[in-house]
Model the fold of this input.
Amino acid sequence: MTGDAQAREDRRWMRRALALARRGWGRTAPNPLVGAVLVRGGRLVAAGWHAEWGGPHAEAMALAVAGGAARGATCYVTLEPCAHTGRTPPCADALVAAGVVRVVYAVPDPNPLAAGGAARLRAAGLAVTTAVESAAAAALNAPFLHVVGGAPRPYVTLKLARSLDGALAPASGSRWLTGPLARRWVHRARAQADAVAVGIGTVLADDPALTVRDVPAPRVAPLRVVFDRRLRLPLDSRLVRTTDEAPVLVFAAPDAPDRRAAALRDAGVTVERVPDLAAALVALRQRGVGHLLCEGGGHVAGALLADGLVDHLAILQSPLALGAGAVPAFSGEVARLAQAPACFRVAAHRRLGPDLLTQYVPAAS
Done:
């Protein structure tokens, strides 16, 4: 096979492995999404994926399915095979023992505890190829790579649903802007996040539950977060009434009323005082949150963008126009946004029924 033909073949099988990795959606955190295929003679021998945190890794699943047929095969895997013993044995050693002759992986494992698999494979005589479909693999596991790289705050996805004329809600009050497919996309995004956040304005206008619905349940329900400087969260809100379903954390200003903090704590809500939004994100990371999905509203969205705290921006645009008096997407933050430290580029673009989803990442990434 020529070099170009081999490269095309490698990309084809890696795309198959990436599709398999997505089957672990919502189930693997804090581990990454990983898929693997074993191929021999141009034919699929076995497939695997990391299905659940604490369970077999993708390579181990594929090797178990293949049995003796793995000997002489190539393994395509979306992340460098691990070289350490954690909840499962090292995948690099398992590939060597199974008689695999070549390993192709998309991105290196940045975790210092797990890295080194490629070197171990080469030392055992296996051929190793890397950086195949690396951009797609890095995008799939962007929150994991962000956190393992040592970032002091979570990876932040900002989701906004906007009208055709750039508003979040009509002047008359809250209403659905997007259709069922777009709303299902949001719930799927929640399932893969460690925490889902909104500002107090959104809570007062919409009384959201911020739970995962209409999609497969995640392994752990995401933490529900409210940015609420003056502790205005109503005690009869859906968030407070459902603390037994998923935890609720409220970030308040240092001088927020003690009486309100005590009432919320008595109702099962965790209250933490922070000086600003950046400090709240650091506090979330210290609580183990690696991926935060923020769903607005306009003030919080504008502040995150203005302070350069957004790693992934998802805009769901409805074909509706809301007209004069509608709530703007970035209320109170227009002037600050003009000095925002980062601009964005389009990373993905697709239709969800009548709505349009455009995903952006910082231009420098």
Remarks:
- The mean pLDDT is 93.
- The longest helix spans residues 3-21.
- The two ends are 34 Å apart (CA to CA).
- Residues 105 and 359 are 25 Å apart (CA to CA).
